[in-house]
Amino acid sequence: MNKKVIAFVALVLAVVVTGYSVSGTYAKYTDTFTGKTATAHVAKWSFNVNETAAEEEFTFDLFNEENTSLTAEGKAAQEDLKDIILIAPGSSGTETIEVENNSDVKALLSLKFDTTGSTATGIPLKYTVKIGNTTLSETGDLDNIDFSSAAAELKLDNGENLTITIDWKWPDDTNGETDTPIGKNSATSDKRTKVIVNAKLTATQDEIPSI
User: Fold this and answer.
1) Is the pTM of this model over 0.90?
2) Who has greater pLDDT, 15 or 76?
3) Taking Cα atoms as reference points, which of 108, 115, 124, 114 lies closest to residue 194?
4) Buried b (16+ CB within 10 A) or exposed e, 65-86
5) What residue ranges in 5-117 does DSSP mark as E strands?
6) Is 22 contained in some domain?
7) Is 136 within the bounds of a domain?
């Protein structure tokens, strides 16, 4: 056997051995398994106030009723003042708020008032706030109304409704000692005494789901 034949046989044997070695190294069972797709939907956060969609915070107009005791001149002045409502001793009004929780989570409502921007001092306005079945004590200080007694009714589950009623009135002052100076202070059109009540109802998620 000549050297060329020997070299060829050696080359063939090397290829066979190498192929066997490689096949032993890389040959294995492989497979791919696809798990079930996990999908989560974001819980809905939605409210209606007086049957109208509302944001997380919504405001409402407390003095939304015209004073029927006004003279023709008073009504004309009220018209000139655009959205300003004129009030006087004996005036009263009611604001009713219907809140519906359309969310997929429970909500906690918070009702706050403040009189920022008012130029009136000493006006003996009285307020009665009714939340659900709880009536809060009549008070002239809206900034410090205590809502703790109505806390349970301020929690709304999905589909639940809550009615909030706010009554206000300016009681008659029989001797005029309190009311008359207030009216005189508002005698000129550029010096109208203003009563501003900022009322804000805020909804927040009541319970955070555990993961």
Assistant:
1) no
2) 76
3) 115
4) eebeebeeeeeeebeeeeeebb
5) 47-49, 52-54, 57-59, 92-101, 107-114
6) no
7) yes
